[in-house]
Amino acid sequence: MVTTRFPVIHGIARVNRNTKLLLRDLQPNAIAVIEHDDLDDLAAEGLLAAEVQAVVNAGQTMTGKIPATGALRLLEKGIPIFEIEPAWLPVFDDHEDIRISMEGIVVKQSIVPYSAFAKENWLRQYRQALHVQHDTLREFIDNTLHYADMEKNLVLEPLQCPGMRTELARRHVLIVTRGKEYRQDLAALSGYIAKHRPVLVGVDGGADALLEYGHVPDLIIGDMDSATDHALRCGAELIVHAYPDGRAPGLLRIERLGLQALKLAACGTSEDIALLLAYDQHCERIVTVGTHSHMFDFLEKGRKGMGSTVLVRMKVGSKLTDARGIGMLYDQEPMRESAVSKRIQAVLQKLAGILI
Questions:
Q1: Lowest CB count within 10 Å: 39, 77, 136, 181, which one?
Q2: pLDDT digits (tens, 9 = 90+) for 1-32
Q3: What whole-number distance in Å separates Cα of residue 302 and Cα of residue 268?
């Protein structure tokens, strides 16, 4: 049911079920059409940076399982969110003109019904997520322990990447993932980078994070789904993270760009692989920025556990310094996470009387 009054919105639909892929090629004033459960901060930040007019979501913007704040960030910046049933998503074609009015979303000859996702919806689901977080944690722990038991032998074996040119032995290695707070943390490490000149490793979109702060990555590791073409062409050595059975969908993209890459088949996340590779190549110190480290981090990524990550950190912990959150210890801008927390509290107070 449509409950929110607003002017008619007309624009070009940019369609992709995968928000990360959509953000690689999103122009201002577009209407983003996605299928994204629990819209996270990083996705919201990308949509805001792209200056979209609106978001049409065939997923559940908030499921009530994760206290995600991405939707709140969009709404507070005046970006409306319209939820549609997943069955309607195939009606939308990329680069197609669409119009959103009180009657529905006009696509070709169809009128797609929607529900406007408002701050009240966010607050209700946010509270629900806090209420069930202990049950969610129990399921997450069970999943983590199950997969940790299955994968422990794979983590014990030294990870090798034949043909890799980048020298990691006896060097500091800075591994950057474009996770929460990466900007202020990377800024806070400027002195460390200048002093130690570590090997710079970008995990997928982490390569763009390094470039954003004037650092050219030496190595890019990942399935290559979120790094931009510009980052992949920066001259870094490329390692495509493949499935344990050898399949590597990301290699097709590298080949289309006319680039060369090594393929590394391994279980776990690309962050795990970067950590293992640095450790097993006998680096001196590993420093990480933006890596995923707790339950909500992984649930927002669609992962129901973190078995491999727990094992990897057990193995590499003696050399690991996790710099996540270090930027919050310094008086610097942008303090995005702190600002988000303040906005959440403000919305909670403002809407406290709406939902009981």
A1: 77
A2: 444 556 799 999 999 999 988 998 899 999 99
A3: 14
d(CA 177, CA 210): 9
Helix (H) or strand (E) holding 105, with range, is: strand 104-107
Strand, helix or coil at 15? Answer: strand
3-state SS of 288-350 is EECCCCCHHHHHHCCCCCCHHHHHHHHHHHHHEEECCCHHHHCCCCCCHHHHHHHHHHHHHHH
Q: What CA–CA distances, in Å, run from 214 to 8, 11, 217, 238?
A: 41, 34, 10, 19
User: Residue 356: which pLDDT band, with cuts at 50, 70 and 90?
Assistant: very low
Distance CA 145, CA 159 (A): 22
**Confidence (pLDDT) at 327:** 76
The mean-pLDDT minimum among 4-8, 221-225, 265-269, 316-320 falls in 4-8
Tell whether the model's pLDDT for residue 303 goes beyond 70: yes
Which helix (H) or strand (E) segment holds residue 174: the answer is strand 172-177
CA distance 305 to 268: 11
CA distance 264 to 218: 17
Instruction: Report which of 268, 261, 348 is spatially closest to residue 309, judged by C-alpha positions.
Output: 268
Tokens of 230: 């510009």
The 8-class DSSP code of residue 40 comes to -
- CB of 312 closer than 8 Å to CB of 268: yes
Residue type, 122: W
